[in-house]
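cache lookup: miss for this entity combination. No prior model stored, computing from scratch. Input as submitted by user K.M.:
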Amino acid sequence: MLNLLLSRLATAIPSIVGVVVVTFMLTRLLPGDPAAYFAGLAASPQAIAEIRAKLGLDKSLPEQFVGYIGDLLHGNLGNSLSTGQPVVVEIATRLPASAELTLFALIVAVAIAIPLGVLAAVKQGTWIDHTCRIVTTAGVSLPVFFTGLLFAYVFYYLLQWAPAPTGRLDVFLSPPTHITGFYLIDSALTGNLETLWGALRQLALPAISMAIFSLAPLARMTRGSMLAVLGSDFIRTARASGLSPRTVIFTYAFRNAVLPVITTLGMVFSFLLGANVLVETVFAWPGIGLYAVNALITSDYAPVQGFVLTMAILYVALNLTIDFVYGLVDPRVRLDS
Amino acid sequence: MKRRSFIKTTAAAGAAATTAPAIWSEAKAQARNETLLLVTESPPNSMDIHGVGTNRPAYEVSWNCYDRLITYGVKKDANGNDHYDYTKLQPELATEWDLKPNSVTFKLRKDAKFHDGTPITAKDVKWSFDRAVTVGGFPTFQMKAGSLEKPEQFVAVDDNTFRVDFVRADKLTMPDIGVPVPVIMNSGLCKKNATATDPWAMEWCKNNLAAGGAYKVERWQPGQEVVFARNDDWKNGPLPKVRRVIQRIIPSAGNRRALLERGDADISFDLPSKDFAELKTSPKLTVIGTPIENAMMYLGMNVNQKPFDNVKVRQAVAWAIPYQQIMDSVMFGQALPLFGGADNKFKGAYWPQKDGYKTDIAKAKALMAEAGYPAGFETTLSFDLGLASTNEPLTILIQESLGQIGIKASINKIPGANWRGELLKKNMPMITNAFGGWLNYPEYFFYWCYHGQNAVFNTMGYKNPTMDALIDKARFTTGPEYEAAVKGFIDIAFEEVPRVPIFQPLLNVAMQKNVTGYRYWFHRQLDYRQLVKG
């Protein structure tokens, strides 16, 4: 197991180095001129030149790159011009917001998709199967920003069930003491029930809109994989031996069917984490996606590089975790690698 | 797994989505009454107006938290709303001043203190002015617009007396002291946080206030919210009525509107025209749209390129723009027309004003033929995607209309980040763009937009020595001579028409009925100090 981990880590290093180089080059190749953008309303050529010098953009590309690598080794991702803060600090405060939203959405999605998929496979061709098909098709064909806007309109504007879409907490609640950066966990740990409730209410709509979108791949994958396993010989044997349907489905079939579901889960998670910018915009969620897009719009190099790097590291970590979970779920995987 | 956990989780999610009375304590309800919730689109990026790349929302923070020596008076506009008065300068930190031909001497308020309790002295004022003219970039540039150029001009006579020596007689010097840039900073506090490489404490001031103004920043979560608390010891003006202001960033315009209509937000600033037109009829809200002074949306043509070097072609374009259609379907009537005047001549020493152009395709065609382009030509029409909600329909209407006189214009959308860079290159043949100047003088606008010094905002690359001479003359004269100069350059601008004025935009704000005291300011940011929530 340790060998496996180490070898995976070793393969991850070149990809991270690659990401560093590529993001640096890409941001420089983009046509925008940050100096012109940030010079402000009354920009004269001198003013822009002064700003360019201040940003270090008047140096040659190799010089800029060496400077960038040096900063990186010191854990310094530079300063964002559009928010005025160090990128490391920004990412550290915004990543938990995105992660909390994504994880919560994923938990909701898994909690619905897996039982639904299993049921659809077991009762193939019945109304449950059809419901599963309709729900997943509808979910995947509604873009997240659309469901988000629709939910905000119906549940906030019309019905007033949901709180105002103003971000992670109601305006008049103060954030819980920082422990993990996850408001739900932090407020629960500090016993601040009012904040816990407030955070949960704010989380509900965006998380559900994201969950609906990610239902489809999970439920379809669970169903397909369950069907394949349920049709195999050892299940027939198990049934013939008079085991209870419950044991057959959960102990024998599901455990064998879960491997592709975990792969899909990993993909869905990474996809959600990167793609939730639209939900973040609709619900004013101060997450990392919104941050990166704003930075791109203003040609703000440092946050874009920081974002891509963070994402790359997250993906690598995620893949490692999934490999690790494979081994736990299915002992055969260990032999294969 | 997990049937049970499935049921549990969905039940919990369901419960969260349904309504439940918020757990408000008495104190919180009280806080809500004394707090003004402002929803806005973009967050401030600095606490320091002198910083590199400080954005417009940051001007608002600076305006409300810092003092300036002087400020502007107030008048009622045509609709009976409060409007700053650029003809009246009023005390802020300075209680009185003595304006002489070569200098002005300010007496400073004796009991004024910074937020940390240190008294505000003339040394602080001098340090702050020195900083503004030294650090470069936008602040230095803005100071220069009022002939405030070097530290030697600023003299701390004694603790409560500060003098500015003029390098030349410039009527913009005094008004320029009241703009957001020359803020009074706590020099002692700044020096404590300065370093050898950063003598003006630029790094520290980005995230910290060294101020003495009407509001303090209680909490700042960059990109999310700023919480302002009133400075109860403020002496430089009437104590603001609102104790706390929370500025929340809500990127989606639809949600800002929903929050306002549901009564969850108190005020929303800088609304899109469509929302403004629709909210106007709402019985629950007060909506105010003020024409933005010295500003216009225009179509600019590059006079250094064929075929726009030909004045007849430019006039043809000016006669072909579908003005009224733009007013109706792009602006929903929420703008002032700058077309269809009685003639193409000067109408008074104010700006912007109507020119004589209107949509007349026959006339435009005739001009095209005269110019030698009876069959038209191909060109591109560029705009800033950052302002797409106005620009996109606007350019499509113009494209269609130009097609009728044989000009095939393809539309070129430029992302916001590139726009400035592209403007600087000055090689786009045709653009739509907006510009507004802080100081409400025609020659100020013309200095930026038509003068041969060729600033970024002279997007047409227009150079005309006669016009330059008139603009320069207007900057430093008064009386009939001044008016003659203004008449001169406005007439040339209409006749030569390198830029076609289309409309004067409005600054729109919507608030709950119980919020009053809104005042329009030339810097187009919200001043919390006059607002009342009751």
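stored under new cache key. The two ends of chain A are 10 Å apart (CA to CA).
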